[in-house]
Amino acid sequence: MPSLLHETLVEVLRENQRLALDLLDAAGAAPRFERWRAEDPQVSVPSREFRADFTLLGLQGERPAEALVFEVQLGRDPTKRWAWPLYVASQRARHHCPASVVVVTPRAAVARWAQRPIELDRRGSVLRPIVIGPEVIPRIDDPDLARRFPELAWLSSLAHADDERAAARVYSALEALDALDAHRATRYADLLLAFVSRALALEVEQMRSARRYIPQTDFVRRYFDEGREEGREEGREEGREEGREEGREEGREEGREEGREEGLRRAVLEVLSARGLPIEPADRARLDAMRDPDRLQVWLRRAVSAEDAHAVFGES
């Protein structure tokens, strides 16, 4: 079953054809046509159906001139090297035009694997996929550029999460995602933080906190803000009643921490709900009772990719 990250990468490219073509241009493989049209990626052969991630058809007037079959790869899958020539042959036969496979991956090792020519026969015929990996995906380090192209900034952070500027790059991408609708911004941000190393995610969260931001995006921030405001009010009331400055400060701090925990608990529920994963009463009780923000962060990351809700709340 495709992972949530795989499906989201496909969605980003399918819904942003300009981004897909710009990446091809960066790879030196972008054909120039008057316009492009999305195509049904299904390929049928006797007793079996194959489905690419999506296809763009370049048009000259109304005539198909070139088909680009896009495949998102997060890992090495030997079966794809048998299926990709079929995708090309199907598009050639359907549209009577040249066709190519375009592999998009944020992982360098997968890009190297996908770049190997695919032998088609014993006479030297080969298929050479066009590969868009970290060497092609640009590093978006300018916050202004990230805000102009939030999806590209997100993809850049996925592809370049292991250099000295990774934390600043991820931070800028998360800020840029706020320009998108709340549902997509939330999902993209959670997936990005789940994809990068824990150490990098914690560094980014510290950067966001230091700038008076809260980890995750709009829906989590909203809950955190509500919790913090409730905590401040409780702290002020406690301080007034006791007449001591320390009472006010302790109340504020306690309220801030409780608000952070409540935001994390609600975020876990939101992610599970968005993915259609029901939560059992026993697991819901564990979530409601949890007061450890570090453990809640772990559960939130698991919620992004777990196969079922119960897997989120294990002890490992």
C-alpha Rg, in Å?
24 Å
Q: Summarize the biggest pleated sheet.
A: 5 strands, mixed
Which class of secondary structure composition applies to the elements?
alpha/beta
Return the CATH topology of the domain at 4-132. Trna Endonuclease, Chain: A, domain 1
Count of extended strands? 9
The CATH architecture term of the domain at 4-132 is 3-Layer(aba) Sandwich
Task: Output the helix-strand order.
Answer: HHEEEEEHEHEEEHHHHHHHHH
Q: Measure the end-to-end span.
A: 23 Å
- DSSP summary: helix tally: 13
CATH level 1 class label of the domain at 4-132:
Alpha Beta
Q: How would you sum up this structure, described in words?
A:
This protein is of the alpha/beta class. Among the domains are: 129 residues, 3-Layer(aba) Sandwich (Trna Endonuclease, Chain: A, domain 1); 73 residues, no CATH class. Helices cover 56% and strands 14% of the residues. It contains 13 helices and nine strands. It has a five-stranded mixed β-sheet, with helices on both faces. Helix 6 runs antiparallel to helix 7, helix 8 packs across helix 13 and helix 10 packs antiparallel against helix 11. The longest helix is centred in the C-terminal third of the chain and has 30 residues. The radius of gyration is 24 Å and the shape is elongated. About 2% of the residues have low confidence.
